[in-house]
Amino acid sequence: MKRVFGAKKDKEPPPSVQDASDRINKRGENVDQKIRSLDAELSRYKEQIKKMRPGPAQEAIKARAMRVLKQKRMYEGQRDMLYNQTFNLDQVAFASEGIKDAQQTMTALKSANKELKGMMKTVKIQDIDNLQDEMMDLMDVSHEIQETLGRSYNVPDDIDEDELMGELDALEADMGMEDEAGVPSYLQPDKEPDLDAELNLPTAPSGHASAQHDRPQAEDELGLPSVPQASIRG
Length: 234
Fold this sequence. Notes:
The chain has helices at 2-5, 17-51, 56-122, 125-149, 161-182, 195-199, 207-214, 229-233. The chain is mainly α. The protein is elongated, with a radius of gyration of 63 Å. It holds the Pfam family Snf7.
């Protein structure tokens, strides 16, 4: 069968947008090179026309320059057409890349959505509510335990208001008596301050005693003060 009909050739894949854009850009570069070459030739013709006198030779140079200018205009038209094709291909490539990005975004969103659904199956609102209720119960029990551990022993709880006021009055009276006993007289109200009594200062010596103290005492043969005979006899 292959000998009769021949083997089926594999079709080449169609060129991508990038391949077509590269090919057109390469053609545009060749056209630009030709235009630059024509510009250089026109520049030479221009210098020759300036130097030559009017006549048949000058007209021949002008005819050549006109022919070169027409070729340049033709190449410029081709270059503009190639630039337009490149621009269109760039727009198509941009749209294609945008669609690819959108596809990847959709794929990522679908994957994330599936993952979230799987996670939501393991988390239920009722379980969260039950957990919160259990936590509140545990906090209440902990509070009761703390209160029980902090309870005082042998403290009467049957004290009425009258007993409380009586206790406070007695306490105030005791504190008043302690204040009067412990506060110096010069700080107590309606009393003249007795500074000598409070400070326990010694009384000043009289003039007679001072004179006796200033009188020189008798000394013995060693230079020591002699003891009065009355003191020895006593």
